[in-house]
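Subject: design request, 208 residues
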């Protein structure tokens, strides 16, 4: 499975980062914990991707090879024969960096994208999977559905919340209300995370 991320963005650094900066960023990102509502599965997958990025970029030869591929922008979206709806349906720029991940790392990758502020991208990845037409979440491909589904719903709802806040700050009040309501409806539909539902409701009250 391919996901629109790269090792530098995972660590929150530019390609010019020094070895010391890479080590510090990996340490800081690893110590930073996601919201307590996330399952151990999502937290572990997030850490795996952070460790993978740190391992590649801390090895001079591996980093040189990665940089050559990264700078050549030779990444191409691939077809997804298993129908996961990831990457291929996003109309990405052909130069968008992608990395290969295991399906069980998907929740962790979404969590990293959320932390990077890629709220719209998170929703583009997740909403088709939550539409009911895609069975990949419930067939175990991404891990135990009892853990994976809440993790993915949580990330999508948080993306709606943060996107709504951004739109509010930009005075796009109707869009902000739509984003917040989408997150709230998603949580109500799944019957999950009442505390987050209350947080979104509070934002809607203030916005109105």
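Subject: RE: design request

Done. Sequence follows.
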């Amino acid at each position: 499975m391919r996901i629109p991320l790269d090792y530098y963005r995972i660590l929150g650094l530019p390609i010019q980062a020094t070895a010391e900066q890479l080590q510090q960023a990996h340490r800081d990102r690893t110590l930073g914990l996601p919201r307590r509502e996330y399952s151990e599965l999502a937290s572990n997958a997030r850490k795996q991707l952070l460790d993978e990025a740190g391992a590649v970029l801390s090895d001079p030869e591996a980093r040189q090879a990665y940089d050559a591929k990264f700078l050549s922008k030779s990444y191409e979206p691939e077809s997804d024969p298993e129908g996961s709806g990831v990457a291929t349906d996003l109309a990405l720029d052909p130069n968008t960096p992608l990395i290969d991940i295991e399906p069980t790392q998907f929740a962790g990758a979404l969590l990293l994208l959320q932390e990077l502020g890629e709220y719209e991208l998170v929703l583009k990845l997740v909403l088709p999977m939550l539409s009911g037409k895609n069975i990949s979440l419930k067939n175990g491909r991404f891990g135990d559905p009892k853990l994976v589904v809440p993790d993915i719903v949580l990330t999508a709802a948080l993306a709606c919340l943060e996107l709504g806040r951004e739109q509010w700050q930009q005075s796009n009040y109707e869009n902000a209300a739509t984003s917040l309501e989408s997150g709230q409806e998603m949580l109500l539909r799944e019957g999950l995370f009442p505390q987050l539902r209350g947080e979104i409701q509070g934002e809607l009250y203030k916005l109105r």
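The CA atoms of residues 160 and 169 lie 14 Å apart.
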